[in-house]
């Protein structure tokens, strides 16, 4: 474990806490893409298949449980919670995310570290996580004004993988066995997708103005 | 064989 990876995990956790805060404080999920949340739940469920078979550390197990539980809780809130579900922008959140699932799965069958059940699903979860934010970014552009908590949520979500890139660079120079090309390349693509969001987030912070993405 | 490279990252 290195400081970059720990900071990355904490930033990821903060993004989830900010989203939970937004939903519980405002009793609303406006501006949040249910499709992206469903994709994240799928990412965690397919990546942590070794949750009960392999043990790495208490920290690793606890964080996996938190990520799985929180992503499922958010999907439940947006689909079932009588008050929250009413504020879901159903007619704006129309990205066909099944294509993202299919493309990631096909790629995982072609490009993997080892042709084994858990490895294919691990690669699938890595590819899917890289593009899972697309429905959310499209929704932000469509819904114009972005409330503060939603903006912070997306910012921390993008920042966590950028910290993981620093972690991979660090491990590349310190770990002789280290070779995580699948995660590295996907992580670069994932972070690049946030580039324009990061720019408009910075502008809104510098001008102390509302976050606004061009349509 | 080298220790199975487990995915130790989240």
Automatic annotation (TrEMBL), chain A:
It is a multi-pass membrane protein. Keywords: Endoplasmic reticulum, ER-Golgi transport, Membrane, Protein transport, Receptor, Transmembrane, Transmembrane helix, Transport. Its main location: endoplasmic reticulum. It holds the Pfam family ER_lumen_recept. The chain crosses the membrane at residues 49-77, 98-115, 121-140, 152-173, 179-202. It is found in: Endoplasmic reticulum membrane. PROSITE patterns: ER_LUMEN_RECEPTOR_1. InterPro entries: ER_ret_rcpt. One of its GO terms (molecular function) is ER retention sequence binding. GO terms for biological process: protein retention in ER lumen; protein transport; vesicle-mediated transport. GO terms for cellular component: endoplasmic reticulum membrane. Belongs to the ERD2 family. This is ER lumen protein-retaining receptor A. The lineage of its organism: Eukaryota, Viridiplantae, Streptophyta, Embryophyta, Tracheophyta.
């Amino acid at each position: 474990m290195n400081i970059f990876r720990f900071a990355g995990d904490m930033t990821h956790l903060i993004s989830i806490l900010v989203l939970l805060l937004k939903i519980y404080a405002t009793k609303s999920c406006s501006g949040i893409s249910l499709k992206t949340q469903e994709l994240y739940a799928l990412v965690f469920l397919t990546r942590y298949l070794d949750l009960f078979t392999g043990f790495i550390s208490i920290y690793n197990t606890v964080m996996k449980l938190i990520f799985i539980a929180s992503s499922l809780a958010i999907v439940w809130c947006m689909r079932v919670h009588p008050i929250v579900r009413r504020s879901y922008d159903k007619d704006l959140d129309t990205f066909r995310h099944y294509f993202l699932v299919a493309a990631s799965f096909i790629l995982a069958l072609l490009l993997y570290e080892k042709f084994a059940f858990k490895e294919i699903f691990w690669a699938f979860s890595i590819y899917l996580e890289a593009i899972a934010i697309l429905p959310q970014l499209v929704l932000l552009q469509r819904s114009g004004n972005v409330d503060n908590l939603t903006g912070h949520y997306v910012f921390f979500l993008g920042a966590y993988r950028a910290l993981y890139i620093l972690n991979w660079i660090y491990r590349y120079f310190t770990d002789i066995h280290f070779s995580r090309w699948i995660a590295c390349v996907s992580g670069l693509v994932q972070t690049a997708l946030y580039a324009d969001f990061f720019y408009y987030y910075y502008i809104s912070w510098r001008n102390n103005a509302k976050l606004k993405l061009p349509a | 064989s080298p220790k199975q490279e487990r995915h130790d990252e989240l």
